Amino acid sequence: xxxxxxxxxxxxxxxxxxxxxxxxxxxxxxxxxxxxxxxxxxxxxxxxxxxxxxxxxxxxxxxxxxxxxxxxxxxxxxxxxxxxxxxxxxxxxxxxxxxxxxxxxxxxxxxxxxxxxxxxxxxxxxxxxxxxxxxxxxxxxxxxxxxxxxxxxxxxxxxxxxxxxxxxxxxxxxxxxxxxxxxxxxxxxxxxxxxxxxxxxxxxxxxxxxxxxxxxxxxxxxxxxxxxxxxxxxxxxxxxxxxxxxxxxxxxxxxxxxxxxxxxxxxxxxxxxxxxxxxxxxxxxxxxxxxxxxxxxxxxxxxxxxxxxxxxxxxxxxxxxxxxxxxxxxxxxxxxxxxxxxxxxxxxxxxxxxxxxxxxxxxxxxxxxxxxxxxxxxxxx
Length: 381
What we know:
Layout: H1 4-7, H2 17-21, E1 36-38, E2 41-52, H3 56-67, H4 76-89, E3 94-104, H5 111-131, E4 137-145, E5 153-164, E6 179-184, H6 204-211, H7 215-219, E7 239-240, E8 245-246, H8 247-251, H9 259-268, E9 271-276, E10 292-296, H10 304-313, H11 317-323, E11 328-334, H12 339-348, E12 353-361, E13 367-372, E14 375-380
Parallel strand pairs: 3-4, 10-13
Antiparallel strand pairs: 1-2, 2-5, 3-5, 6-11, 6-12, 7-8, 9-11, 10-12, 13-14
């Protein structure tokens, strides 16, 4: 069955990216994030990573239009930082500086209110990181008025991280017998202000189209496109008991920043690979390692937000696991016997963690088997 996510114009496989990868100066092309040599220090590598908040800004825009409150722009800062620093840390990179890029349609979005709210958000997230032993310098960025290009606004950022080339986590060492420890994306960590739905930044296009009422598209046509939608039955402030929050709060739950946990785990155990389950969901591991069959047969029950999205969109469970993190935002692959150390570090930050699977030898390239209450699914790289 075709993906309902794909029908909305989102390609989870990111076809075409390979053309750009071919021209990179990546030292470890098989690693989770690109690493280039530091031209001033041959023993060190630089991780320069760029990412954004996806279509979460659309949700914050609707919330703002409905309430007039600028606070709903604030958590975009968490999302942009998380999507960058965690990807960099997956290869062992220690982030040092961050820059933002804000593109806005000033005819639709109040620019001063937006920037004021984002500044507050960035200040909070970097302060929380400092409190947890990670100092990332905010080095400014760029704001662009692009009314002919941008429908509402977009927020992205770039992080600079450094890692010794001899200490890069490449994924080459992933082998049969390794175990996969999954860190939850929902709940509330010691450095988060409130309970998190777990959705992070991926799958938001499908989520908002299947959950939010068509009334919003009629009122604010700038939030739509040529794709069919919105067709949901919820208002942005509809409180859902099983979520214990409103639809809008669930969709805007900031992506968890795993950086403080990752850096402590790296110091404590020998890590084979770290996988940030963003675009590609639980299939993100397929790009790591060689001739590995990833078996995930001890996954926790998906957080309520994912069950709701599946029920309302009627997306197949197979595609749900490919498009969403399904409650596991980060995976750490280690030797059997080291899993308790990873779990211990994570749980000290009040982030639930458990062994979710194992690695086996594969004879047909990388593959993934997911065994869950919702079915058994196999994926190939």
